[in-house]
Amino acid sequence: MFSKHKPTWMLEAIYQLTPEQLAKHQIKGILTDLDNTLIAWNNPEGTDELRQWIATMNQAGINVIVVSNNNPERVQKALESLQLDFVANAMKPFSKGIKEGVEKLGLTAHEVVMVGDQVMTDVRASNGAGVRSILVKPIVNTDSWKTQLNRAMEKVVMKSLAKQHQDMKWRSDLG
């Protein structure tokens, strides 16, 4: 029933994703959500761990583009110190922003993965665009008011998906 919301993989955090794992699955580019995936929604500074992860991806030749529903000013301000390209006003759960991100990367949908913390937006948009997805745990356990409704619906969806797919487990790598 909720197959359009099923993530390809589930990782505990985006920082666990390595160039080696991506290469194993022929992934050459990363699209990622911003709030609660890369940075805490209420702390746009980011962490040293995030900067190291981005540097590792850059050294491996793997481009990272942020795909966010936020407005361009908010995304640009949050990414100033990280020097990442982005797609704002992505309209997730629709696939518009994901498709724009794939186009910016200059890759095919099969060569790209989308990483996000929400099934209702990130994973649904990825699946709609034919892009594999990685669901990660939110960085912080609080959400902006806009996200709280999605989280309630997400619990229902995840419970249903877990019953149908016993392989849906949090992992530390893509396997």
TrEMBL record:
* SUPFAM superfamilies with a match to the protein in the record: HAD-like
| One MF term in the entry's GO annotations | phosphatidylglycerophosphatase activity
Q: Which Pfam families match?
A: Hydrolase
Q: Which domain of life is it from?
A: Bacteria
Q: What's the name of the protein?
A: YqeG family HAD IIIA-type phosphatase
